[in-house]
Design goal:
Blueprint: H1 18-30, E1 34-35, E2 41-42, H2 55-95
Antiparallel strand pairs: 1-2
């Protein structure tokens, strides 16, 4: 069961590339969502503009959206690891476990 304000999309892969659809929905959610009464942000999916493209074009875009998401995850992971190194660095330097070049 979906909660209030949640939507489930089932894309027919013969007509709509699911990764392409997800990419456009993500763009919509990232660009100026409306404010709800509770103060939470949410996009109105009824207003999402999705261009009419051939399935082949959708698949190309879907693959690009997926590659960009993988890159975003890798950057986030590297950022977390860098932050951990910065946090642990002073103690590691002081203990001699980390040496400067």
């Amino acid at each position: 069961m979906l909660g209030p304000g949640l939507y489930l999309f089932r894309a027919d892969p013969e007509q709509v590339d699911p990764a392409c659809l997800a990419g456009f929905l993500r763009i919509s959610g990232a660009s100026g969502p409306a404010r709800g009464q509770s103060g939470t942000s949410r996009a109105d999916i009824r207003r999402v503009e999705i261009p009419r493209l051939s399935v082949a074009e959708q698949r190309q875009l879907g693959e690009a959206f997926q590659r960009l998401e993988l890159f975003e995850r890798a950057v986030a992971r590297a950022s977390r690891q860098a932050a951990e190194l910065v946090r642990a660095g002073p103690a590691e330097l002081a203990s001699g476990a980390l040496r400067t070049p």
